[in-house]
Every structure is written in C-alpha cells, then in structure tokens.
Amino acid sequence: MMSSLAIQMQGVTKIFKGKKAVDNLDLKIERGSVTALLGPNGAGKTTIISMMLGLMNPTSGNIRLLGGDPRTRAIRGRIGAMLQDTSVIDNLKVGETINLFRSYYTQPLALEQLLLLSGLKEEQGIMASALSGGQQRRLGFALAMAGNPEILFLDEPTVGMDVRSRILFWDTVEGMASRGKTVLLTTHHLEEADQVAGRIVVVQQGQCIADGTPSSIKALASGRTISFTVGEEVTEEQLQGVPGISGIEWKGRRARLYSSDTDLLMRTLIEYSIPMQDIEIQSGGLNEAFQRLLQQDYKGIM
Ligand SMILES: Nc1ncnc2c1ncn2[C@@H]1O[C@H](COP(=O)(O)OP(=O)(O)OP(=O)(O)O)[C@@H](O)[C@H]1O
Ligand SMILES: [Mg+2]
Predict the structure, then answer these.
(1) Residue 25 · residue 208 · CB < 8 Å
(2) How confident is the model at residue 71, as a pLDDT?
C-alpha cells in the first residue's frame, strides 16, 4: 500500500563534534501538504533537510521519504531541492544549466515550463554566473523543479528576492501544492510561513517546540494565555467547544488556554458559564527565544 506520508523522521539525532544540532526529532509530513520549518539561526533547519535529502547521515534515528530510503537513486529521482548554499556552474548559460539538470531525470519538465515557473524566460541566454542574487535563487528553483518532483525541499528560498519575486514565487509554490506536491520549506519569517504553509513546525536547538496550523502558532507567538483551575465537572470537550481557543494544556485540574485575544476569550468563558477558580492571565508559555523570534514578525502582520 502506498504510504500517505511523504516524509517520516523517527528519533533522529545529529551530533557535530559533541554538539547536538538535531535532538531526537520525530516528524511526519503528509503527502500534498505545505509545511514550514520555522526557527532562528542555528536551530537545525538545514541539518534536518540535509538528512532528509540523504546528503548527510543522522548520528542515530531513521528517515523515510515516500516510504523508501532517501539515499537511493529511486527516491532521489522523485525529489527536488533548493538548498541554502548553491553556486552556479561556470561557463553555462541559464537555459543550458536547466537542461543539464533536466538530463538527470527520466521525466523532466519542459525547458519552457521551467523558465516560466522561475520567471527566467528573458534570462535564458545569459551566463548563469551573471545573474543577480535573487535571479540565482530563481534558477535554483528551476533546477529543483527540473525532475517534476513529488517532494520539493526549499531551504530559505526567498532570501535575496525582491517583493514581486517573492509573491510570484509563493504563488507558484501554492499552485504546486494544489496539484498534490509535497513542499517542505524553511524560513525565519512567521509571516511567510503563515502565507504559504498549512502547518508550521517551530524548531529550536534541534527540537520541535511547537507544531500546528499558522493560526495556532500565531496565537502561541502572541504569548497570551489564561490559566485557571476547574472542578471535575468541566471536561476537555466542554472547553474545546468554546470559540477563540487556539490551544489547551492541562496540569492536573489546571487548564491553560492559548488565544490571540485573551480579553475576548475571558468574556466568552464567562458567557459559557465555565466555573473558573484562581484565574491568571499571563504572557509567555513557550520559551523566551521563540517569543522574541516570533513577536518581531507578529507585529508585522497585525
Ligand atoms: N557541518 C557542520 N559541522 C559542524 N557543525 C555544524 C555543521 N552544520 C551545522 N552545524 C551546527 O549545527 C547547528 C544547526 O545548524 P543548521 O545549519 O542546521 O541551522 P539552521 O536552522 O539551518 O540555521 P540558519 O537559519 O542560520 O540557516 C548549528 O549550531 C551549526 O553550527
Ligand atoms: Mg539553514
């Protein structure tokens, strides 16, 4: 049976010279989804992607792509990647570079289509080394797409792209997702992840510290929570029926609710006659660096 999972990581750890870059990570990515790995510099995003691509072996743990081993030719032929550090091949024109990559695959996309997808139609005859930084990123995208991959890995793809290129780029990625492709991308920007991804996995020090829909991650990033103690008569299901809650954590009979608007949520809880004792409204709940990382971007989208 075909696995519904595009990517599966189980207990994956990567240690560099005694330092853990990825720490016992479990991650399952569904086919046809767009997932963003979000995290600060050094969080482990590129290391995670390199291991998924089979470019680097994990110190321990297991990785499957499309149900197979990422280091095999059969699986490699079905994936495409736009890496963080890419360099162009000297003395090749844009069109020639794309054709070279097309030749690695049994069923490549047409050159014309790749030029269109990457917005490089007018540049096809110039030397790849003469492209601007942002154009080189777009060439990287064309190369990643050359084999018409089932899974596309994008490591900080929009760095160096201007606003217009970014918008076009994300439109293209969205179009691919709607055609059943799986996309895994990394970014530092919550707003970008929010625009394009259906799921955001927040990585810090090689661990997943939050995983959910963009709206739940935004609520976490806003850092506001309401905590209170309830009696046995209040059930988890009852709280889940209250609108405006993006996450619930329990410690014994004490519930902590995450919300992007705690004032409104408080009024709603009272309306729903939830009997709350020892109510506290606090900011924070996730660790501080995550707060700092995300709050900066968060201001931008409000
Ligand atoms: N080849 C390597 N040798 C030694 N240490 C490495 C190597 N590659 C990565 N690291 C370390 O592993 C950690 C994770 O790095 P990684 O590049 O995966 O982070 P990242 O989340 O991609 O960061 P950025 O947002 O800056 O791209 C860092 O502490 C980094 O210094
Ligand atoms: Mg990186």
Answers:
(1) yes
(2) 93
**230, pLDDT greater than 80:** yes
Average pLDDT, the chain: 88
Q: Are 218 and 298 in contact (CB under 8 A)?
A: yes
Nearest-CA residue for ligand 1 atom 24 is 41
Question: Domain residue spans in the chain?
Answer: 5-212, 215-301
CATH level 2 (architecture), domain 215-301: 2-Layer Sandwich (3.30)
Fold annotation for 5-212: Rossmann fold (3.40.50)
Tell me the torsion sign for CA atoms 220, 222, 224, 230: negative
**Fold match between 5-212 and 215-301?**
no
Would you call 119 helix, strand, or coil by DSSP? coil
Q: Which ligand is nearest to the CA of 25?
A: 1
Of 14, 41, 290, the one to substitute when testing ligand 1's pocket (max ligand atoms within 8 A of C-beta) is 41
> In this structure, what is the dihedral angle of CA atoms 221, 227, 230, 232, given to the nearest 10 degrees?
40
Question: At which residue do the structure tokens 């499957």 appear?
Answer: 64
Tell the residue nearest (CA) to atom 16 of ligand 1.
44
Atom 12 of ligand 1, nearest CA residue: 21
Most informative mutation of 41, 47, 82 for ligand 1 (most atoms within 8 A of CB):
47
270 close to 263: Cβ distance less than 8 angstroms = no
156-190 pLDDT, tens digit per residue, is 998 888 888 888 899 989 888 888 899 999 988 88
